[in-house]
TrEMBL record:
Source organism of this protein record: Bosea vaviloviae
GO BP annotations listed: fructose metabolic process
Protein name as annotated: Carbohydrate kinase PfkB domain-containing protein
The organism's taxonomic lineage, starting at the top: Bacteria, Pseudomonadati, Pseudomonadota, Alphaproteobacteria, Hyphomicrobiales
Family: Belongs to the carbohydrate kinase PfkB family.
GO-annotated molecular function: ATP binding; fructokinase activity
Length: 313
């Protein structure tokens, strides 16, 4: 992939997983849809008019071929995708509980997700921003590579965002997971977490207290999503907030990925990623937060991760 292809691009790393979504309350009928925080975030960015490039290992099996076809169809760069003969990782989503909140049974061992060299370790020239998503950017070979990649990105003058997106079933116990997550936070300019993420990491603590601690580690912005109550952005000034539109929820799969895609797409459209991040204003953050809440709510009206097509400009 040439530097010209990567000019102003947002590089996305993180898992690509086949989500098996229940289509009835008893879980008798499932549909295989494309998912995973990395893939979902790249999808959202593309649909909001940004220029994402996805980097990671994809299987050559039937699901892997569907991922490639979807990336190409959405205009997402694939020059950093690596082929794997291992099968695609899958997640079995439980029948939904109250509020459409899913539970994921993840199956990762022996899959393309576990490829030791699946994630690049150096930021390619021309890209202005790195987005690192979930456990794929936190643990295992891909997590180690994502750490090197984040260091390379910051050295190159690119900005870095990190979506905590806790999946407790695949993380080590909290005491061992926390240092890994904090290491990634310390390398990031923008960190996104949900109230559920914060409750798992720091039970009983206020969101603002955790956010300010993360800022002490190095994060310049901490985004906290609050489900139907919208989101808040902790930065150097009084935190901007945005409400979430009221919608009929099909499920919340991919809502957080759509949110961060929307937020980054607005900053990208305004030239506020990379070196332009130093000039970000409260107005930029307010607009990005409002857009992110709107598109995340819209995504909840359809099953699976299916972000709307809206230009962030």
């Amino acid at each position: 992939m040439s530097a010209r292809d990567l000019c102003h691009a947002i590089l996305v790393v993180g898992e690509a997983i086949g989500d098996f979504i229940p289509r009835d309350p008893d879980g008798r009928h499932y549909e295989a849809v494309l998912g995973g925080s990395g893939f979902n975030a790249a999808l959202a960015l593309a649909r909001f008019g940004a220029k994402p490039v996805y980097a990671g290992a994809l299987s050559t099996d039937a699901l892997g071929r569907r991922f490639r076809a979807a990336l190409l169809a959405e205009g997402i760069g694939t020059g950093l995708v690596r082929d794997s003969a291992l099968p695609t990782a899958v997640a079995i989503v439980s029948p939904l509980g109250p509020g459409g909140v899913p539970e994921f049974g993840l199956h990762l061992e022996g899959t393309a997700h576990a490829e030791p060299e699946g994630t690049p370790r150096l930021m390619p020239p021309g890209a202005v921003h790195l987005h690192a998503a979930s456990f794929g950017a936190t643990i295992g070979p891909s997590g180690e590579a994502a750490g090197d990649l984040a260091a390379s990105a910051r050295h190159a003058g690119a900005t870095v965002s990190y979506d905590v997106n806790i999946r407790a079933s695949v993380l080590p116990e909290r005491s061992r997971a926390l240092p890994l997550i904090e290491a990634r936070i310390s390398q990031s300019d923008i960190v996104k977490a949900s109230l559920d993420d914060l409750a798992w990491l720091h039970p009983g603590e206020r969101a603002e207290d955790v956010a300010r601690r993360w800022q002490g580690l190095g994060a310049r912005l901490v985004l906290v999503t609050q489900g139907p109550d919208g989101a808040i952005c902790y930065g150097p000034e009084t935190p901007p907030t945005a409400s979430a539109p009221s919608v009929i929820v099909a499920d919340t799969v991919g809502a957080g990925d759509t949110f961060i895609g929307g937020f980054l797409a607005v900053l990208a459209a305004r030239g506020r990623l990379g070196v332009g991040f130093a000039d970000v204003t409260r107005g930029d953050l307010q607009s990005a937060l409002a857009f992110a809440c709107a598109v995340a709510a819209d995504a909840c009206t359809r099953p699976g991760c299916d972000p709307p097509r809206r230009n962030a400009t």
